[in-house]
């Protein structure tokens, strides 16, 4: 697909949505998107690429180059996340359905495809109001605000939280009851971000493939990596505490 009608000498000829002009760096794309999505970062764009939601061209030196079609896909993804709280799996299915139809993405802002009513099975599908989250976990309103300021949980406009946010808050409340202070939790956030970066690199070769079987393997690999990470973390903490416990 080529929404801008590129000429035959297009360096990305044969690839959908490519253009021989108006190619942008990742920084330029970020500048375009931040006017509408101020929380977007370069790391976020790289993550969406790793998840197979956008596929920018690469220069011989390895730099990313985005077309307007790529920017339209990113707007599609970010709008669906912000306005409809959709998991990436559902957004990916919408993108595939749109690209198989007759209508191509508009260069600036594509129209979202209607979403079916399927049963939520992913934590990202869960929508918990702030009052319910406070009642469910026992967190105070002030502590919840501090957790948001630390970046440990994120509220989705107009004030919903997903299932993972509820798990995080519940765990934090338990840790603080044992005397841990919120400032100590920055290390947990930093460690998690590092794992996400490592796992994204491992999963990228699978999620970039267009084969549905490869994407299914990527999802299963992600679950296995998470489980192994949890086991490793628990074992390291147990081993480290043996000296303290005199065992």
Q: What's a concise summary of this model?
A:
The protein has 247 residues and is mostly helical.
What do these coordinates show?
The structure is a single chain. The protein is mainly alpha-helical. The chain has three domains: 118 residues, Multidrug-efflux Transporter Regulator, Chain: A, Domain 2; 58 residues, no CATH class; 61 residues, no CATH class. The chain is 55% helix and 3% strand. The strands form two sheets. Strands 1-2 form a two-stranded antiparallel ribbon. A two-stranded antiparallel ribbon has the order 3-4. Helix 3 packs across helix 4 and helix 8 packs antiparallel against helix 9. It starts with 25 loop residues before the first helix and ends with a helix.
How confident overall, as mean pLDDT?
78
| SSE ordering | HHEEHHEHHEHHH
Number of strands: 4
CATH topology of the largest domain: Multidrug-efflux Transporter Regulator, Chain: A, Domain 2
Strand order of the largest sheet: 1-2
Task: Write the CATH architecture name of the largest domain.
Answer: Orthogonal Bundle
CATH class division of the largest domain: Mainly Alpha
Main sheet summary: 2 strands, antiparallel
Give the count of helical stretches. Answer: 9
**What is the overall shape?**
globular
Estimate nothing, just give the exact number of structural domains: 3
Helix fraction? 55-70%
CA(first)-CA(last) distance:
64 Å
User: From the helix content, strand content and strand pairing, which structural class follows?
Assistant: mainly alpha
